[in-house]
What does this fold into?
Amino acid sequence: MLETLLHYLSFPFVRYALIVGVLIALCSSLLGVVLVLKRLSYIGDSLSHIAFGAMAAATALNLSDNLLLVLPVTIVVSILILYSGGRTKIQGDAALAMLSVGSLAVGYMLFNLFPPKGGNVSGDVCTTLFGSTSILTLTKEEVWLSVILSAAVVILFVIFYHRIFSLTFDEDFARATGMRTGLYQLGMAAVVATVISLAMNLVGSLLISALLVFPALSSMRVFHSFKKVVICSAIFGVSAALLGLLVSILVGTPVGATIVAADMAGFFLFGLIGLFKKGRTA
Amino acid sequence: MALLTVQNLSAGYEGKPVASGISFSVSSGDYLTIVGENGSGKTTLMKTVLGLLPPVSGKVELGDGLRKNRIGYVPQQTAGQKGFPASVLEVVLSGCLGKSGLFYSKKEKDLATKQMRRMEILPLQNRAYRELSGGQQKRALLARALCAADSMLLLDEPAAGLDPVVTQEMYEVIQSLNREGVAIVMISHDIQAALIYSKTILHLAEKPLYYGDVFGYKREYFLEGEQHA
Ligand SMILES: Nc1ncnc2c1ncn2[C@@H]1O[C@H](COP(=O)(O)OP(=O)(O)O)[C@@H](O)[C@H]1O
Ligand SMILES: [Mg+2]
It folds into this structure.
C-alpha cells in the first residue's frame, strides 16, 4: 500500500492536489471557527451556491481561468450580504436562501445552454457541485494562486488573531475599545469569499460548508479556550483533508465526499472524547 | 471637570428617537444609576454614549483626556457568549486591545493579572468562561472593562440573572470600585439597590422623569417609604 502511495506521489498532479487541498482545509477550518461562533455558517453555505453560479457563468464564457470570475463575484456578494444583513434583519435569511437557490438554478441552466467544449454537461455539473476530479486537474498557475491566497489568509488570521477574538466574542465591546469593526468585517467577508472560491476546486460547491463547520464544531466539544479551539480546528481540518485525499487516491472514491466522510468520523470521535472528558470532571 | 457630559441628547435608531431630552454629566468619583422600565431606552442611551450608535440629536462629550477607546463597558450578556470557548484570561486580556499593538506585551498581561486579582478571579484565569457561574462571568467582564479603562465604567444591568446573594456581592464590588475612584454609570431596574448605592439617579422614560441626587429622588418618588410604582 505504501508503495502504491509512493508511486502516486511521483505524479506532480497528485502532489499539487495534496498541497492545495491541505492549504484550503487549513484556511477553511480557521475561518470556520469565527463563522460558527458568530452563527454565520449559513453565509458560507449561501456563498458556495453563489460561487457555483459564477463558475457556471465562467464556463459559459469560456474563460481561461474560472477563478477570474468566481473570485470577484463571490467577494462582491459576500460584502453585499454583510451590509444588507445589518439593515434588513427581518427577512434577511429568507432573502439569502432565495439568492443562493436562485444561483444554483441559473448555474445549472447555464451549464445546459452553453455546454463546455468537449465536455459533458452532467459530468461538469457533478464536478462543480461535488468536486469530483477538479483537484486532480489543477494547472501550475492555479496551484500557485491557491498557495499565495491561502498563505495570505493564514498570515492575516495570525496577525489579527487577538482582534478577531474580540470581534467574535463581543462586537459591541470591541467597538467600545476603539476597534474599527466595520473594516474587519469587510476584510472577513472578502476572505471568506476567497476561501470559498478556492474550496470549489477541492470539494465542490455543495460540500464546502463541511470544511468550515466540522473542524470548529468538533474542537469546541473538546477544548475550552479560543486558542486551543483554533489550533485544534486547524489540525483537525488538515488531517481530515489529508486522510480524505489519500484514501480517495488509493481507493478511487470521490475526493470531496471522502474528505467530508473523514470530517464526519472526526466529529463523532471528538464528540465521544468530549463526553468522556465531561464525565470525568462532573 | 466632567468625564462625560451629555447635552439634550436624543438616542434612538435610524433617526427615530427612543428617548430624548437627556442631559447629565459624570465626574470623577460619581455613581449614577439609570433606572426606568423595560424598553424605556436605557441600553440605547448607553450605546449612544459609547459611540456604538450615532446620536439622533444632541451631544455626547468625553472630557478629561478620556478617549473613545478608554471607557470600560460591561454589556449585557449576549446569546452568543453562552457556549463560547474562551478562557477567563483570554476574555480579560481582550480589554487591553485599545492599548496594545497586534500582540499583547508584558505590560498588558500584567494589567490583566492586576484586574483579575482586583475582581478576585485570578485563580480562575485558565478556566473556561462558559463554565463559570453568572457572578464569576460578570467579574470577568468587569476585569475586562477595567483593563480598557479605570476612570469610568458603564454597566448595563450588571445584576441581571444573578441570585440575590450574588447580586448583593456584585453591588458591593461595584461600590468598592467607586470608592477607589472609578466613576460608575449603571443601568438597573432595581430601584431599591439604586437608592442604597448610587449618588445620582436618572429616571428615564420617553423623556427623563428625574435627574438629580438620590435624596431628591427619594423625596419625589418614595414619600415616607410609600412606593409609587
Ligand atoms: N436595534 C434596534 N433597532 C430598532 N429599535 C430597537 C433596537 N434595539 C432596541 N430597540 C427599541 O428601542 C427601545 C428601547 O430599547 P432599550 O434601549 O433596549 O430599552 P431598555 O434597555 O431600557 O430596556 C425598545 O422599544 C426597543 O424595541
Ligand atoms: Mg436594556
Q: What stands out?
A: The domain at 2-275 of chain A is CATH 1.10.3470.10 (ABC transporter involved in vitamin B12 uptake, BtuC). The two ends of chain A are 44 Å apart (CA to CA). The pocket of magnesium ion (ligand 2) is lined by residues B 42-43, 156 (CB under 6 Å).
